[in-house]
Amino acid sequence: MSKPHKQIHLAAHFPGVNNTTVWSDPEAGSHIEFSSFVHFARTAERAKFDFLFLAEGLRLREQDGEIYDLDVVGRPDTFTVLAALAAVTEHLGLTGTINSTFNEPYEVARQFASLDHLSGGRSAWNVVTSWDAFTGENFRRGGFLPQDERYSRAKEFLATAGELFDSWHGDEILADQATGTFLRDAKAGAFVHTGRHFDIHGRFNVPRSPQGRPVIFQAGDSDEGREFAASSADAIFSRHATLKEGQAFYADVKSRLATYGRRPDQLLILPAATFVLGDTDAEAEELAKEVRRQQVSGATAIKHLEFVWNRDLSSYDPDGPLPDIDPDPGEHHIARGRAQVRMYRDPLAIARTWRELATANNWSIRDLVIETGNRQNFVGSPATVAKTIDDFVQADAADGFILVPHITPGGLDAFADNVVPLLQEKGVFRTEYEGPTLRDHLGLAHPDDVRSERVAS
């Protein structure tokens, strides 16, 4: 007996701090004006996507001590944007990345509980840690924590926020939600937490929200990050978007759930994915090449190479060969505030590999950066892209994808109009929303139901 087809989950990432948006395209719009967010969100909701996803940038990026002028300048505050979008959408989930290193549990829990009320149960929190002292300079607690300390704080941060969400629970919810008046005195909202990172007690002042807690996302790919997701998250935001890598990551993370008394369906794997559509596969391939060259100008290529070399390479020709000098393996001082720096933990080995690729393919600096860093995940006609996405999900390489278009805010329109209907025809994507909350969209149980199930077992 064949197993039933899995339902695909789709989300839309409004690409805030990035270097993948094609700004030279006349359709490229503002990343600040609210109209851009409204267009993007309404397109996602029209296509019946699960949620909209906002990343976070807590400091402008710098390159060799100067503001990096080939990237997005910044973005409005996440909670402000999501709260405003709650008023112009009805079903779309609203997911925000909020840092656990430079915030406090009470403040973040209060903001997410409020957003969940305002949106009717559509909030989600992507829990991240900060990795660099550069960002920390913007905050009272300057500097950064070692990796094990970051996850230690993040785990306690999330657990503490959970205690605050749960402080209004069951019979203790004795207030008239419509008027905000108490029916009688109670212990509603009372909490006490004493731990290594937080020592707080008091009363949480936001009553139990429609989802009980926001949906929890996690984005770390390290072993600590995978374990954190298996223990505490509802979904994991992955960067593994090839079939083989996706299947390995999927199997690894799902296998960790049993340790925490969880089932495989209680954690969704949702990689980020870019796409380029054309009327035919050949047309899409040509367009994808053009998009990659628009994303990586000569100046951008040199800046990207500096991430690895940790040297000023401004004198090099982007259409010439790679530098004959080796990277500086010391403390990184060229590129600051960029996540890519973390990915190159052995710059000397990366440089050797890149030189071999460049020599074998006769690539210039710009060619190399294009070919190693900006290949789209899904390229083809709508039918080809729909089939590829479905194949990935059915092969357990993902539970769905968080789509990142290269044009904002209109880059999602063609996918919504041409790919989504094909997935609906296959019977693997919804034609209507299943319920009012984001947990309904994602097929996740309410926290109270999960708690009752664990008690019963």
From TrEMBL:
Assigned EC number: 1.14.-.-
Protein name in UniProt: NtaA/DmoA family FMN-dependent monooxygenase
Pfam families found in the cross-reference section: Bac_luciferase (PF00296)
InterPro entries in the record: Diverse_substr_monoxygenases, Luciferase-like_dom, Luciferase-like_sf, NTA_MOA
Recorded GO MF terms: monooxygenase activity
Source superkingdom: Bacteria
Top-level EC class: oxidoreductase
Domain Luciferase-like: 23-395
Keywords in alphabetical order: Flavoprotein, FMN, Monooxygenase, Oxidoreductase
Entry's family note: Belongs to the NtaA/SnaA/DszA monooxygenase family.
UniProt organism field: Streptomyces lonegramiae
CDD domains: Nitrilotriacetate_monoxgenase
